[in-house]
């Protein structure tokens, strides 16, 4: 059986997750090369028996034997790396977002359209088993017409200020997952955004023009509402829940806990807290999304999440920023 030849660009936290999964869990692919500015990349290549390692992306993308590229480089390089890979005829898997600029994302999409390549954009939460089950129930019509979606997404602690400075802000870094989830679950477009945000925990976040707490209301094209609450600091762990209410019933997904322990007595009850790190909470989804990418390559299928999904999530994020700044509801048509 012919193995699909892979290259991985960027070996930070997410890049190493994909490297581990691709190296140890799939027999129908082969990693030909990795690239990263880290001078110690040689050790990673040796550990995983990868024949080629580069300190610049161009060497990787110019390797004619590589068929598919996994882009996990910092966000500011995503657009450039996607375009170079597309022009080299590679199949592309890229971490979100494509870019923080609407103009740049539009240029990326233009290139992808010109070379007829559909990008697999890694909105990993679509591949979480619990969220996928919610999606299946909604798609089957078991809860009837959607009326309200509630999404809670709270981190246990904020990222470093150095990261906040380049992240694009909470709406484009954190909430963007929830914006994509709203479209994914509902199978409808968002037409209007109303967002409010404040800083409760770290004044340095405010000094750098960002927020750490937000509530966003999205209006869907059928007038259903999505209520999203975000916090960068939940004292009890990584809080990830969703509930969908419809004309025939409701469904949802609760938090993933450290374990299923519980204890009851006459004074009350005790149980486990949610997981406290996103890489643990979403370990299955990282595996499932790269598995889906491989299946798309093998079966010549279009990716289930692509550049259009990235464009729409970015537009919703920009609308949220505008809404908070101008203290009003913003229509997506004002952004796109």
How would you sum up this structure, described in words?
There is one protein chain. This protein is of the alpha/beta class. The protein has 13 helices and 15 strands. The chain has 2 domains: about 110 residues, 3-Layer(aba) Sandwich (Rossmann fold); about 180 residues, Dihydrodipicolinate Reductase, domain 2 (2-Layer Sandwich). A 7-stranded mixed sheet has the order 12-11-7-10-9-8-15. Strands 3-2-1-4-5-6 form a 6-stranded parallel sheet, with helices on both faces. Helix 5 links the parallel strand 5 and strand 6. Helix 1 crosses helix 12 and helix 9 crosses helix 13.
List its traits.
Dihydrodipicolinate Reductase, domain 2; Rossmann fold; seven-stranded mixed β-sheet; 336 residues; alpha/beta; 13 helices
Number of helices: 13
Q: Give me the count of strands.
A: 15
Give the overall average pLDDT: 95
Radius of gyration: 21 Å
Main-sheet strand order equals 12-11-7-10-9-8-15
CATH architecture of the largest domain: 2-Layer Sandwich
Low-confidence stretches: none
Please give the share of residues in helix: 25-40%
Report the end-to-end length measured between terminal Cα atoms. 45 Å
SSE succession: EHEHEHEHEHEHEHHHEHEEEEEEHHHE
Shape: globular
Number of individual domains? 2
How is the CATH topology of the largest domain named?
Dihydrodipicolinate Reductase, domain 2
CATH superfamily of the largest domain: Dihydrodipicolinate Reductase, domain 2
At the first level of CATH, the class of the largest domain is Alpha Beta
Instruction: Estimate the strand proportion.
Output: 15-25%
* SS-based class: alpha/beta
Main sheet attributes: strand count, strand direction, barrel closure: 7 strands, mixed
């Amino acid at each position: 059986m012919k193995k699909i030849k892979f290259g991985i660009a960027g070996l930070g936290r997410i890049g190493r997750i994909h490297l581990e999964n691709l190296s140890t869990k799939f027999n129908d692919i082969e990693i030909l090369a990795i690239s990263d500015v880290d001078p110690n990349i040689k050790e990673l290549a040796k550990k995983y028996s990868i024949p080629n390692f580069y300190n610049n992306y161009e060497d990787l993308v110019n390797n004619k034997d590589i068929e598919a590229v996994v882009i996990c480089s910092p966000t500011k390089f995503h657009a450039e790396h996607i375009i170079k890979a597309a022009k080299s005829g590679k199949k592309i898997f890229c971490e979100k977002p494509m870019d923080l600029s609407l103009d740049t994302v539009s240029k990326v999409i233009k290139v992808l359209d010109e070379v007829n390549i559909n990008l697999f954009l890694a909105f990993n939460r679509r591949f979480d088993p619990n969220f996928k089950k919610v999606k299946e129930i909604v798609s089957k019509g078991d809860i009837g017409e959607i009326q309200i979606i509630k999404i809670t997404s709270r981190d246990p602690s904020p990222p470093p200020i150095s990261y906040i400075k380049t992240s694009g802000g909470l709406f484009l870094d954190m909430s963007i997952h929830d914006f994509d989830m709203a479209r994914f679950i509902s199978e409808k477009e968002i037409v209007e955004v109303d967002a409010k945000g404040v800083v409760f925990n770290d004044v340095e976040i405010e000094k750098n023009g960002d927020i750490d707490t937000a509530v966003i209301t999205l209006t869907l094209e059928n007038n259903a509402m999505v209520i999203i609450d975000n916090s960068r600091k939940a004292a009890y762990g990584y809080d990830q829940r969703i509930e969908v209410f419809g004309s025939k019933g409701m469904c949802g997904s609760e938090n993933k806990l450290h374990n299923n322990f519980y204890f009851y007595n006459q004074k009350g009850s005790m149980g486990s807290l949610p997981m406290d790190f996103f890489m643990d909470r979403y370990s299955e989804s990282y595996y499932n999304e790269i598995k889906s990418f491989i299946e798309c390559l093998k079966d010549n299928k279009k990716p289930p999440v692509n550049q259009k999904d990235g464009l729409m999530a970015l537009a919703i994020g920009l609308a949220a920023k505008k809404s908070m700044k101008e203290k009003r509801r913003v229509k997506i048509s004002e952004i796109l």
